[in-house]
Write the structure tokens for this entry.
Amino acid sequence: MSTSPRPAAPMPAVPAMPPATHPAGALEARGVTLAYERSVVFEGLDLRIETGEITTLIGANGSGKSTLLKAFGRLLAPTAGAVELGGRGIRSMATREVARQLAILPQKPLTPQATSVRDLVSRGRHPHQSLFRPWTPDDSRIVDAALRDTGLTELADRDAASLSGGQLQRAWIALVLAQQAPIILLDEPTTFLDLTHQLDVLRLVRSINRERGATVVMVLHDLTLAGRYSDRLVVVGGGRVIADGAPWEVLTPGILREAFDLDAIVIADPSTGSPLIVPVDPAPDAGTATGNGTGTSARTGMQG
Amino acid sequence: MTGLDTNRTAGVSAGNRAGRGVPARVVAVTVACLLAAVALALVGIAVGSSSLTVPDVVRTLFGGGSPAHELVVFELRLPRVVGGLLVGAALGLAGALTQTFARNPLATPDILGVTSGAALGAVSAIVLAGGSYTVGAGLLTLGLPAVATLGALGTAAVVYGFAWRGGVDSYRLILIGIGATATLGGLTSYLIARAQITEAAAASQWLVGSLSGISWASVWPVLLALVVIVPIALAQSANLGISQLGDDISVGLGVAVQRHRLIVIVCAVVLTAAAVSASGPIEFVAFVAPQIVRRLARTGRPPLVSSALMGAVIVTGGDAFARGVLPGEVPVGIVTAVIGAPYLIWLLTRRKERESLS
């Protein structure tokens, strides 16, 4: 458990927000209880998302990290407590107003048929439009910039359904960028991608954070990548926050054992200096002591 | 991936594209459908036992026809053709709405049980009230559409209620709809079996779906429904586009998903009920029209306006074909079923290839 306070200024000065008409309000869970049917996932949880940081929720399978992200994105109603955005209950605000401040990319969006990449990304402008404020050249410029920032300019007129997995994920992120919300929630944005494309997506996320000053909250499975690209890690499990802090404070052997049932040593990544998780195989004669799961994690080097 | 400064240094040259405007191909298809509907309406007015030429029809419509022609055009043919146009438009639009909302071409008012619910309501009005659709204009203008709407709304509520599991799975919705259709069909048959012979005959004839009994009195409710519903449906068009991406991302993009769904369903149900009470259930129009238009326009979902126009084309054209080419008075519902059923089978067999869609 990390008790030391997080550094007050974890990053270099954050550039000013893009000229957003809707300034960022802080996102905060206050006494939130989350439940599916009758099984309670979290009870009375408090968690404040720091503006301008990349916060990553990690935890074992079934720990409720995606559930928590959904609550932050108002996709799931807490049975008690509330998620607040700028001090107001997020579920009592007009959903379109929330959408201008907070964008969410869920795990499995449906790729529409016969829709060009540009058309798909254009839908990110939806919260800014209405019958009385139709499409403008500004919208087109924002969409073009989102396509360029995600390296999709060349593919803009392709059918979205024909993109590869990595390209498609970038298209979804471009849609979220076009939404121009100061807070961006990403639910496992790297799932189903190979390592190169995972890095590609996470570098893109970091540049969105560093250059636009966007607050990012995401769920990731890969602990090493989470440590490498996050300012703050929140480990959840057993219906509570197990640890919360900078990557080096959180990714310790003790916490890894508690949260993931994982025996590992943590060393400095030779290329970045961020924590590198190295799982340890159980000794042959002590195989039963550490339970299942560790063998698998040793092979993949990650577990979530 | 550098330079994430969206607003200032964007590619201005490409920035002035049409953006999210209506694609040219959709406009072309819409205009083509409109022209076809007008042409088929003129042909439909001309065709019949006392045959007119299309120029005769045009002359008469613009006030230059003989009294005999005026009688045929305005009293006999026009209500039927206008009725066909409006019923077709209502069905086409209803189909486009439900198919888009459920993200599945099989989800049409016919298959979801809404049409059967409206039919059961209408048949009970015909049988229990002891009047047929040709008798009692009072029943026709007020009673029958109201009862049909009740039947349709009730069915929609039940089917949707059973299909709801924290979200709507389109296959579950369709399977429950098929069950509801069978149940309601059974109830309708029961009513007919218990009815007096004249009423039973009237109800059975009505159930095929025909424009032969249509009069100005039955046209007005459909017109009213379209005038009210079309603007509401069009206002939901952008939300329908977003909802194709999934429920969670729709919420993220600021769509009030529950309210949007309710509006779309009520629109589709009211349109279906209005159409069914005017003409009886004309099968497969709601199913076929949006899919033809979607393929012609090459869009991800059926465009609403051209789906309505295509529905009008199919019903008016089918009725003109039935009267002008086929021997005897074949109801248009039989023509559309003969076209539509094979199309359904074709679509079902092709669907396997892209099962992943839903």
The first strand of chain A starts at residue 27 and ends at 36. Residues 1-22, 289-304 of chain A have pLDDT under 50 and may be disordered. The first helix of chain A runs from residue 65 to 72. DSSP finds ten helices and twelve strands in chain A.
